[in-house]
Amino acid sequence: MNDTNRAGKQRAAVLGTGQTHHRAKRPDVSMAGLCREAIDRAMADAKVEWKDIDAVVIATPDHWHAKMAMEAINAGKDVYLEKPMTHTIDEAKQLVAIMKETKRIVQIGSQTTSAANWRETRKLIADGAIGDIIMSQGSYHRNSKADWLDPYDPVEPNAGPDGKGDDYVDWKTWLGSAPKRPWDPNRFFHFRRFWDYSGGIATDLFFHVAAPINVCWGEAQFPYKVMAAGGLYTFQPTDMHCEMPATFHLLAEYPKGHSLVLSSTMANAQYIPGLIRGHKGSVIMVEQGGFEDGTDHIILRPERSTIDDAYKAKFGDSEKIIPVERTNMDAAHMTNFLDCMRSRKKPICDVEIGCRSVTVCHLGNLAYWNHRRLRWDPAKEEFVGDKEANQWLDRPKRGPWKV
Q1: pLDDT tens digits along 119-145
Q2: For the chain: N or C, fewer Cβ within 10 A?
Q3: Other beta carbons less than 10 A from residue 318's beta carbon
Q4: CB 35 within 8 A of CB 57
Q5: For the purposes of burial, counting CB atoms within 10 Å of the CB of 173, is it exposed (0-12), middle (13-18) or buried (19 or more)?
């Protein structure tokens, strides 16, 4: 943190849009702008220079995340980086390396991980309440009328490269390293529907499930085998201006002897309970299934056929509802980042958790699009004996925006 701040405040610049800036409303924090131009104006009004900025909050489309984060870190800033952390596997690996080298504080913006139920689940698992982990499951479901993002992100008809004032879009800069294309309002306002800028359900929604589950395990882990399936099914791509599957399922196996099952559809709102199964019991972290909805309890459900007297003496032999504190996850997550800026302690969702969570999501996408079961080497962070697949670790990038 910059100790020369005259008001004793942490100063953060917000790059992008959305509601991230609302999460930092604290008397000891001042925020500047929602895009570079707005930041420049706000900083000029406040007589603040870039050297006085302590942190950068990045809430842009995914294809800009790694470039902005690495430049901010190299400039000596701490970073709050919205999920899904990066647009490619190689970018995630680079970001972990640069964080370790510079010792900057980097919080990945999966606010869900700041809820209390994951930490309580982690304690139960570490204490032996479910025995060896067998499998974890989670889901993310919605029911949309028109397409998988309806009714989010409406198109502004006057916006574009020819727009005036706030309607002006610097399309060339917005595209950045992505392939050059003519102006397309659907790509700008609905970027999560297109592979050039997003990873769809896997990176946008599954990250909110994979990251908390990694927290519960007590150790963030890479998978070694990933499969995926899905499709548009109900929705038609010609009507949607969408390249993404609207129903997506991911199955991953882990070297420690357990598996992960993630399921999502944008055409039905019925969730699957979020839980972790073991040989001796299960912990249900979110009974209603909504990882982002929060909860005031978790459930320990013993497997009566396998538990012994020692287990019964410690945990009992019947289902137990365990109260947990229900928190404002958004506020708690940003507060944790700001506190870690001062203490220099590791944040709740650091780059190690972020890297392992986004990697399994990216691997699911690659398995889906290439119709293959993929084998991953967690130590080398590359595909096993597969030169073709190793070309998918990153994407071609244009011009000066390369990472």
Answers
A1: 999 999 999 999 999 999 999 998 876
A2: N
A3: 10
A4: no
A5: exposed
Name the percent of the chain in helix, strand, coil, to the closest 5.
35, 20, 40
Burial 185-214 (b: 16+ CB within 10 A, else e): eebbbbbbbbbbbbbbbbbbbbbbbbbbbb
CATH number of domain containing 88: 3.40.50.720
What is the spatial distance between Cα 94 and Cα 221, in angstroms, rounded to a whole number?
17
Q: Is residue 259 part of a domain?
A: yes
- 339: helix, coil or strand? helix
* Total Cβ atoms within 10 A of residue 343: 11
- Return the structure tokens found at 17: 């849009």
Measured between alpha carbons, how far is 372 from 302 in angstroms, rounded to an integer?
37
Residue 234 lies in a domain: yes
Neighbours of 272 (CB within 10 A): 16
325 with 385, same domain: the answer is yes
Flag the least confident range among 102-116, 176-190, 389-403: 389-403
CA torsion through residues 95, 101, 102, 106, sign: positive
| 130 and 275 belong to one structural domain | yes
- Is the pLDDT at 303 greater than 60? The verdict is yes
Among residues 302, 193, 209, the alpha carbon closest in space to that of 246 is found at 193
What tokens does 259 get?
A: 């598996």
Q: For residue 242, what pLDDT is reported? A: 79
Sheet holding 55-59, edge to edge: 29-32, 10-16, 55-59, 78-82, 106-109
* Domain containing residue 232: 113-148+198-390
1 contacts 342 by C-beta, under 8 angstroms: yes
243 and 274 fall within a common domain: yes
